[in-house]
C-alpha cells in the first residue's frame, strides 16, 4: 500500500505546475491603475495575441516589470509607450500609430472591403443583365 502512495505522490509532483505570481508593490493605487492600464495596452511580442497582463512568457514578465518600474519612477504613458515602441517596435501596441511604415496595417482592411464591394456589385450587375435577357 505504501508503494502505491509513494508512486501517487511521485506522479503528482510531475503534474504540478508552478505559476509565477507577479507581486509588485506600488506607492499608490493611482500608480497601480496606471501601470495596469499601460500593460493592458501593450502586446506580448512572443505570444502576439495576449497583452502583457495576460501573458506569462519571460519576455512579457520582463516588459511588465519595466512598465511597472517606469510608472514608479514617475514617467507618464506617452514616455513609456515611446520607450516600448523604440525598443520592441510598433507591433507591441494593439493600436499602432498611423505612419508610413504601419500604413499597410491600416489600409488593408479598407482595401479588402472595397474589393469585396466591387466584386459584389459586378456579380449583382451580371445577374440583373442575365435576368433581363
From TrEMBL:
Molecular function as annotated in GO: lyase activity; metal ion binding
Which residue ranges does the record assign to the CcmH/CycL/Ccl2/NrfF N-terminal domain? 8-129
Which superkingdom does the taxonomy of this entry point to? Bacteria
Asked if the record carries the keyword Transmembrane helix, the reply is yes
**What residue ranges are annotated as transmembrane?**
104-124
Q: List GO terms (cellular component aspect).
A: plasma membrane
- Classification via CDD domains: CcmH_N
May I ask which residue range the UniProt record assigns to the signal sequence?
1-18
Could you tell me the Gene Ontology terms of the biological process aspect for this record?
cytochrome complex assembly
> InterPro entries attached here?
C-type_cytochrome_biogenesis, CcmH/CycL/Ccl2/NrfF_N, CcmH/CycL/NrfF/Ccl2_sf, For-dep_Cytc_NO2Rdtase_NrfF
Q: Could you tell me the keywords of this UniProt record?
A: Heme, Iron, Lyase, Membrane, Metal-binding, Signal, Transmembrane, Transmembrane helix
| Alphabetical list of Pfam families matching this protein | CcmH
Which family is it part of?
Belongs to the CcmH/CycL/Ccl2/NrfF family.
Give a short account of what the protein does. Answer: Possible subunit of a heme lyase.
Name of the featured protein:
Formate-dependent nitrite reductase complex subunit
Instruction: Write down the species.
Output: Pectobacterium parvum
